[in-house]
């Protein structure tokens, strides 16, 4: 039996676990997949992921492998409030 072609693999929509395995993917969470993509984007340099300033990239909020929009985090608005109250300004002042 021959391996399925890319066209055959891509014809399964949405992709299933079986077709993903046949394409060579290991099972992982969406956050793990995002992290892998960020590593690919940054030539496998984790420090570059942290320093990424491409804030318009859809993956940017997730690049630390932490989901920022969980219901628990959304209910606890202290992090957002801290930033709005001068997190960025405070960082600039601390660096000066
Ligand atoms: S968030 Fe940054 S590192 Fe991750 S894919 Fe986007 S641009 Fe690349």
What order do the helices and strands come in, and which of them pair?
Blueprint: H1 6-10, H2 17-22, H3 30-41, H4 46-51, H5 71-75, H6 78-95
Iron/sulfur cluster is lined by residues 37-38, 41-42, 49, 52, 54, 57, 59-60, 63.
Task: Please tag this protein with its features.
96 residues; mainly alpha; 6 helices; 54% helix; elongated; binds iron/sulfur cluster
What does this entry look like structurally?
The C terminus is likely disordered. This protein has a domain of 29 residues. The relative contact order is 0.07. The chain is built from six helices and no strands. It is mainly α and 96 residues long. 54% of the residues lie in helices and 0% in strands. It is elongated. The termini are far apart. The longest helix has 18 residues.
Task: Offer a quick outline of the entry.
By secondary structure, the protein is mainly α. It is built from 6 helices and no strands.
Query: What string, H for helix and E for strand, traces the elements in order?
Result: HHHHHH
- How many E strands? 0
- Please state the average pLDDT score: 87
Tally of helical runs: 6
Biggest sheet architecture:
none
* Low-confidence residue ranges: 90-96
**How far from one another are the termini?**
66 Å
Q: Which structural class is indicated by helix and strand composition?
A: mainly alpha
- Tell me roughly what share of residues is in helical segments: 40-55%
Beta-strand percentage?
A: under 5%
Rg result: 19 Å
Give the overall form: elongated
The set of bound ligands, ions and cofactors reads: iron/sulfur cluster
